[in-house]
Amino acid sequence: MSDIESIPSTDQAFLEDFHEVATIGATDAGGVDRQAATPEDAQSRKWFTGWARTRGWEVRVDGIGNQYACTEFVPNAPYVLVGSHLDSQPLGGRFDGAYGVIAALHAAQRVRQAVAEGARKPAYNLAVVNWFNEEGGRFAPSIMGSSVYAGLFDREEMLRARDLDGISVAEALTAIGQLGTDAPPEAAGYAEIHIEQGRILEREARDIGVVESSWYTQKLDIDVLGEQSHTGATAMADRHDALVAAAKVVLRVHAVTESFEEEAMVSSVGQHVVEPNSPIVVPRRVHMIADLRSSSPEIVREARAILLREIEEIAREHDITIDVSDFDIREKRYFPTDGVELAEKAAANEGLSSRRIETMAGHDSVAMNTVVPSVMLFVPSVDGVSHCEREFTTDEDMVRGVAVLTSVTGELVSGELPPEAPWAGKS
Amino acid sequence: MSDIESIPSTDQAFLEDFHEVATIGATDAGGVDRQAATPEDAQSRKWFTGWARTRGWEVRVDGIGNQYACTEFVPNAPYVLVGSHLDSQPLGGRFDGAYGVIAALHAAQRVRQAVAEGARKPAYNLAVVNWFNEEGGRFAPSIMGSSVYAGLFDREEMLRARDLDGISVAEALTAIGQLGTDAPPEAAGYAEIHIEQGRILEREARDIGVVESSWYTQKLDIDVLGEQSHTGATAMADRHDALVAAAKVVLRVHAVTESFEEEAMVSSVGQHVVEPNSPIVVPRRVHMIADLRSSSPEIVREARAILLREIEEIAREHDITIDVSDFDIREKRYFPTDGVELAEKAAANEGLSSRRIETMAGHDSVAMNTVVPSVMLFVPSVDGVSHCEREFTTDEDMVRGVAVLTSVTGELVSGELPPEAPWAGKS
What we know:
- The structure is a homodimer.
- In chain A, about 35% of the residues lie in helices and about 20% in strands.
- By secondary structure, the first copy, chain A, is α/β, with parallel strands linked by helices.
- Chain A is globular and about 80 Å long.
- The interface between A and B is large, with 75 and 76 residues.
């Protein structure tokens, strides 16, 4: 902010905390590298625990590494959960996830203050959550901790997921002392704030995005199986080069979006591992993961069908095997209309502009929205860039978001969002 | 062999040793995995040392991990070296390299016997060599130990080369106790036998290939630098996907061979590393190594020029940076004609058919041939396959090769190949 003196002290405290956490796992180019259950992730978790305990919140860690800072207003009542995740992509940005957790801590602290002062009458208790492994960069699938909480993923199965070095989630969480045994708080509702990771708010100069639905997404596990041979001694005609066939698959996954209206879908390969990966060996195997997303489930299904046909042709052309399997299918899902309206009012009350928006990215709120009424807010992202070190959101925009999140959290704690919303089953 | 009883006991001993070494680092599919300076490589080196010491050879290890089994016939005279390498590609074949070392041990032992019996008069001493890291799968460049011996590579620089886990050659050799301090024997000549790794001998039903020249080869280090972003949230038009651009480069490297006559060159990408390699991140970087080879230096140079132009176009089209640099250029090189004729006579004396042949693959002999007159022999490879687990050569063909190698080694020890051969400088 241009004039730090003019900022209220509560906002200054938020900004100080945000910028302090951004130093954990900081990279030279202004990003962070805090992949799930690494020493850097452990450090941010320690910061979370310290912050909460200092202020009298009870910290719990559940059996998939989710951290909760809990406060009880109404004995035996369920909790409003508010939060996001402190883990990052490899060489990720410092806003993705961390902004939501630190905003949640400050919003929750303000709501607790309001309850203590009698300014807000609580119907539910309140907890801030740092979900485990939202990013899925080290351990697939992503959105792991909140999906286990929501019963979408099996905890035991997730604990067995392994990174590329063969280390399991259970081993990695144990190594950082974060495989907990605490019971997670029972949820009555959920709120989350996040950077947009797109350009819509910036382009339209809106302060707040209120998420009304999440894109339909699915991944394809693609295993290209050729034959290993000598890069020097094997005649071109005798080769079954897995990398050449894989390169064609990568290009088809990229190009399939052109079969649809511009921006109607996104599609790409992010993980792509070559074996044996020796300079002098024609590759025998490429294992890759493609990520297909659209607001329209029909478009993703049609793109998938096109790709399966094209991949079959590539396999035939190269006389090699390409195995493809679906995984991590996430239905298009609507957030409750009552929650969207509640968030719009909260923004208006703060004198801020807002617009309804879809989320292309997955978020913990998407998992939580399958079990309790959830509210998801966005703040603008400069240039729309994300999952990279130059990801950026201004202090002003962050502070505005904290104000709206505080208001939304307060309303949820007061029971203003009905637990049985009309959205149920609208996935 | 169909009837083991009919095989001379010396050949039986060779076959027993060969099949014993094939159990070190053996894979389920009949191959071996003995990458340079791994525990499996250490085990095969221990076998080499044990075999040689038991039979009274003096074992030395030099400062780049080359192992020598030496015997002195003529005090202060230089040595005829004969050997190959015991390291393998990841999931490599059991013949590539290992056949040459075990054949050399047996050939050398037979020559020593002949000298002891007065049947052969020596002009030089004799050493069997197991060159370090011929394969280059773990540490680039390949043909490392013999190239350091020949003064083509700098020892200190090679000791600093690192594998994909960041471990240096010096660290890896130290870890297996094979970073030696012995002076290597001074060479007067070199002989090596190897499987063909091609189909020519099999197709023409010849027993022995006598290598007259090695292909011109070079590698390209290609670094594709895009921008990391979110696979879900980033609009297709806003991406600078390094993997998509890299896929186009892979296909161009593959297709460039079509600009020339069939089989006139080979070209491929063997190593290809994606960063950050997370399923949910558009890749920021792909680092790859392309391998171009031809009998004709002009063809490789022309292919390189075509690729540089095409890669520039790809970089422009994707608005990303692609850095390309040349490395590991190996000139087309002729083996001495005297040596070729000597080997042809040796084959004929054994009643075997032979033909002159080019080597597409690099070998330790190619490095040694730059400093001393060298002879390189091939035996047939079934289906021509190599650098893979189903690489195969029959016992009969291996035994025939040992006989010819024994004869060639004996002739070299007797000084039948002039040290200043007319081939010098014909590279």
